[in-house]
Design brief:
With 297 residues, the protein is an alpha+beta fold. Helix content is 51%, strand content 11%. The protein is built from 14 helices and 5 strands. A hairpin with a 7-residue loop joins strand 4 and strand 5. The longest helix is centred in the last third of the chain and has 29 residues, at 267-295.
């Protein structure tokens, strides 16, 4: 990924979203050549020179102070996720680690895995910023069962399944919302870790093989993903909308634990009980099969 290009396209796309009226500026004339603010209007709102802003938008964020970045964020009316992304891009521009590297980290700690397993009533899993599923509890694996099928490549990756597997669109029926969320999360991670070769490889694969991903990726949207509702169409329990809470693991930066839940006495809660019963049946079948194989000479 080219940091200068990302900076240029991100700032230009945010600038294009804001009209002079939204920014509190007079709109002189009706024949404007840009859909949103002009560069000089952003410079005025941010309190910097036109030449300096033009340099920033060309990708030269290295050395820009936090005060300048915050002023840009206000001028461009960035939300929390976009503001953080702007700072991430500035850090990436100032980094000398131009070569691609692979992020490495130790295994998930035993205590975190115990916490994950103890969440017996809620599907839960741990993922990294690339959306690889690294660990699940029993219900989490049952909920994401289609992603663990034999024909799905490992490591299990939510984005790769969603965009490249034939079952992706069916499993994520709220397609437009789910699509934009996934792409925005990967774009956010790309700003944080632009030299992660695994992430670069995944994005290159998705851009090459999925027109829908490529179109969404070009929008440069980012987001934070802490809480909300996600819709699944599960092959055993049907369509279900579950609330989720995503919690970053401070002791293991880059990892996030996501847990799903449903209000008691609702169809979604009943669906989770059905999922638990199905998971128990699958466990029993696996135990029986394993025991039979062990007894064979």
């Amino acid at each position: 990924m080219d940091t200068k290009s990302d900076i240029r396209e991100f700032l230009a796309s945010r600038r294009a979203k804001i009209t002079p009226q939204q920014a509190g500026l007079p709109a002189y004339g009706s024949n404007r050549r840009v859909p949103g603010l002009r560069r000089e209007e952003v410079a005025l709102l941010a309190g910097v020179s036109i030449d300096y802003y033009a340099r920033l938008e060309r990708g030269h964020l290295a050395g820009a102070s936090d005060e300048v970045l915050d002023a840009l964020a206000v001028a461009l009316q960035l939300d929390e996720a976009e503001r953080a992304h702007l700072h991430d891009l500035a850090r990436a521009a100032g980094s000398r680690a131009a070569r691609r590297t692979k992020r490495t980290r130790g295994p998930i700690s035993a205590s975190v895995l115990r916490v994950l397993d103890s969440m017996s009533d809620s599907p839960a899993f741990i993922r990294n910023g690339r959306l690889d599923i690294l660990a699940t509890n029993r219900l989490g694996r049952a909920l994401y069962a289609p992603l663990f099928a034999d024909d799905v490549p490992r490591p299990v990756n939510i984005a790769r399944y969603q965009f490249l597997h034939p079952g992706g669109r069916d499993f994520f029926p709220d397609w437009d919302v789910s699509l934009n969320t996934t792409v925005s999360l990967l774009r956010t991670e790309a700003g944080r870790t632009p030299h992660d070769s695994d992430l670069t490889g995944l994005i290159g694969e998705l851009v090459t093989r999925s027109e829908e991903f490529r179109t969404a990726w070009a929008k440069h949207n980012v987001r934070l993903h802490h809480t909300g509702r996600k819709v699944f169409r599960h092959p055993e329990i049907g369509e279900v909308a579950l609330d989720f809470d995503a919690m970053e693991l401070p002791a293991q930066p880059g990892l996030t634990l996501t847990a799903y839940s449903a209000e008691p006495h609702t169809p979604a809660h009943d669906a989770l009980r059905l999922l638990a019963a199905w998971a128990a049946t699958q466990d029993a079948l696996t135990a029986t099969t394993t025991g039979t194989e062990a007894q064979q000479p």
